[in-house]
Design brief:
Blueprint (H helix, E strand, L loop, with lengths): L1 H35 L6 H8 L3 H7 L3 H20 L8 H18 L1 H12 L7 H23 L8 H17 L1 H7 L7 H19 L13
Length: about 220
């Protein structure tokens, strides 16, 4: 029994070490990729940055491509989690406010990851596979249906759901990609939690006021 318990504990310990080292590798890699791109980053640099022998990198990832792809999937997973706030069982105002707040919190907590993904897109999205693109389309399609249902029920003014999400992505992503610029504009050395809270309230207010069913119908966009 003791031998079995010891073996079980050893497996847990090994799993924790593996998870910790993978996190170290990805944390270092994302900073280098965000700054220098895929071609400009060497495996030896990643190893030096995270303090692990280069051979250890191959134990966890078979190639530099796999590290890069793992980071892309990590960001997509993070955005999927945030998108869960858009649900048909929630009222639009509650759901959209929660979504904007969570998206900005992601930008605040993972600015390097956000910039890494943005740089990949700007470089042509060569590592965004057909599977990634299909997944992102399917998730967005499902959330678009939620917005259409809100419009159908008269809870939102007619709005194209895809452009609606693009507006939200653009506004919230700015705080990750151009955080230093945003901080300078509002006379800060760096953005604070309060700044992100004010940003969330401002973005939500502008979007929800624009989509409110109480607004004049003349301002509505024909999306038929």
């Amino acid at each position: 029994m003791q031998r079995q318990d010891g073996g079980y504990a050893g497996k847990i310990s090994e799993a924790r070490i593996r998870a910790r080292n993978k996190t170290r590798i990805l944390g270092s890699a994302v900073q280098l990729f965000a700054a220098k791109g895929f071609e400009g980053t060497r495996l030896s640099e990643i190893a030096d940055h995270c303090g692990l022998p280069r051979a250890n990198l191959y134990y966890y990832f078979s190639s530099k491509d796999r590290i890069y792809t793992a980071l892309i999937e990590q960001v997509i997973d993070g955005w999927d989690g945030v998108f869960e706030h858009i649900r048909p069982d929630r009222e639009p105002r509650e759901a959209i406010e929660a979504y904007v707040k969570a998206k900005l919190e992601y930008s605040r907590s993972y600015p390097v990851e956000s910039r890494f993904f943005a740089s990949e897109i700007l470089r042509g999205a060569g590592f965004l596979t057909r599977r990634h693109r299909q997944h992102m389309r399917e998730v967005t399609d499902r959330k678009a249906e939620v917005v259409r249902e809100w419009v159908k029920l008269g809870k939102l003014s007619p709005v194209d759901p895809y452009h609606f999400f693009i507006v939200l992505w653009s506004a919230t992503q700015f705080y990750a990609d151009y955080g230093h610029l945003a901080a300078g504009i509002i006379h800060r050395k760096r953005l604070t939690r309060r700044d992100f809270a004010v940003a969330a309230a401002t973005i939500s207010g502008l979007v929800l006021d624009g989509c409110s069913t109480d607004q004049a119908s003349a301002t509505r966009v024909n999306v038929s």
